[in-house]
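Task card 7
Instruction: Convert sequence to structure tokens.
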Amino acid sequence: MKRISLILLSLLLLIWSAGAQTSREELLSHIELTAGNYVNYPTPTGHITPAPKGYEPFYISHYGRHGARYMTGDKQYKRLRTQLDSAHRAGLLTPYGEDVRARIILAAADAKGRAGSLTPLGARQHKAIARRMFDNYPELMTKPLKVTANSSNSRRVVHSMEFFCEELKELNPSFDISMAADDEAQFYVRANRSIEVPDNDTDDALYSKLKKFKRRMLSGKPQMKAMFIDPDRAKEFIDPYQFADDLYNVAADMYCLPELGLSFIDVFGDEGMIDAFRAYNVFRRQRNPTSFWP
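Output:
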């Protein structure tokens, strides 16, 4: 009897493990998730739990993050443009490299002067949140309400708040809406940067391992081979790791800019995007709270 029970348990475990999806399989099924910090949140598909009998909504509190955005700086575009332009003049680019360069030129031109700004998709996201709130709670949202909105003083966050409130006002002109991004509210809408994690004796060894892991995942070798006629010559002015890292950030941010119609996933392939995702998945804030580990 005991033997039968053990066999049955083993079979159940085998069935469970066969049906379980690994993280790699999930990423391959939804390759957009490899964009990491640039992944767009999925549109909710669930339903709102109705209020208990005899009760109705009387107050809503919403705490959100800014919408889809451009990269917070243009250093990646500047490096890529400089390197690819130099390779172009030297006749080092393969036809594929020329194609990637042409796409980088288009993406860089669109991003110029917009570092960290909300993208058009980001604006639509916050309008959609406001509309869902209105549609899900009509008994409350059709009344003349006082709406108080506060945001951090980051430009993209302020714009996210404005698009959200603008949509609410269009849906119900009777709303009395006030918006602010002053210092008074910063203590609860922003992270406290003064809090530092104490140093640990193992920190240096850990960060050393993480940097090595990231360089292994983003070696740049496939990209150099595909894009340059003579990769060794190109290495004289291009760091393969930095090159791949810049390309990954551009590839990931394109998910925030669907209207551009540009994609760089082919530069890495699905497996390469997963490797890059793994590299950034170990990304941790350094002991200095104002800087990030590269």
